[in-house]
Fold this protein.
Amino acid sequence: MKQRPYNVVLIVPTGVGASIGGYAGDALPVAKAIASISARLITHPNVLNGAQLYWNLPNTYYVEGFGLDKFANLCWGLRPVNRNRVGLILDSAIEPELRWRHLQVADAARATLGLNLTDYVLTDAPLNVQLRTARSGASWGTIGNPDSLLRAAERLIKQAGAEAIAVVARFPDDMETQALQDYRHGSGVDHLAGAEAIVSHLIVRHFRIPCAHAPALKPLPVDPDISPRAAAEELGYTFLPCVLVGLARAPQFIVGQNRALPGDIWAEEVNAVVIPATACGSSAILSFSNLKAKIIAVEENQTQMQVPPEKLGIKAIRVNSYLEALGVIVADRAGIDENALRPYMSSLHCLSQTSDKL
């Protein structure tokens, strides 16, 4: 009997200060390792985006967070593609010189990587992104002119035939804040990430196509003490390259299983979901916990959240590290109970006899 493909979902929530995955693409090594032992890895931009650094993982699917929630909730499926025609939205608040930096990235992606991009669109009003911090320490934000963003996306889809959308919004410069300094030195929360998620969620929810975001910011002054985990964001003028690469092959969303084709992926086919042990409250994780997938909670990946699986009634396999999570996946693929790989195992117990009463 032919073995069915083993599919894994890797989630590191955005803007919660994850010690692995809370910085500039620093969960990408984890994704590479899991992809190497999986038929298909499904993850989101926060895991794969490393500013100007990225990695081609042919069996990995780049799925925006709102789309991942809908996938986990059995509302949408994922359809792998050979390539997407990517449209680019630039916030009209971006200064001319910074705008040219991003347009040069787009042209370089076309000429050097062979990506298929449409002509770009400027928003008809500044998006006016504002950054916020929750009491928990997680980051979030608001968009002052969401309608301008949606009008720009609609133009790209209808007039240019865009199949995926990259957005570059002008974010506030806060070079002197303690939060930014903490982040650059390897502690604290990515203060941009929560607002970035709002931008991409809006487009995916309205148009049901892949979307990801890159913030436009002034270059930061050189700091010799930058943490290696934050260093990818220090390399240039833009975070756009990884977004364009990710969207180029991001799967399309399918609404309704009656449209299913061979090769489409549905949440029932996910075998394992890997998450930080303190951040189990997302919609996607709650949905997956009701399916057959094993939930693997990694204790070493600490976050600002305090939402362990047990508080939500989620049955999870707790592991210390991503290295141990890889072992659980390998054992599960081989059909081996992970407890058989531990030095101690309890004996079987007899089930108590009960009589059914009418």
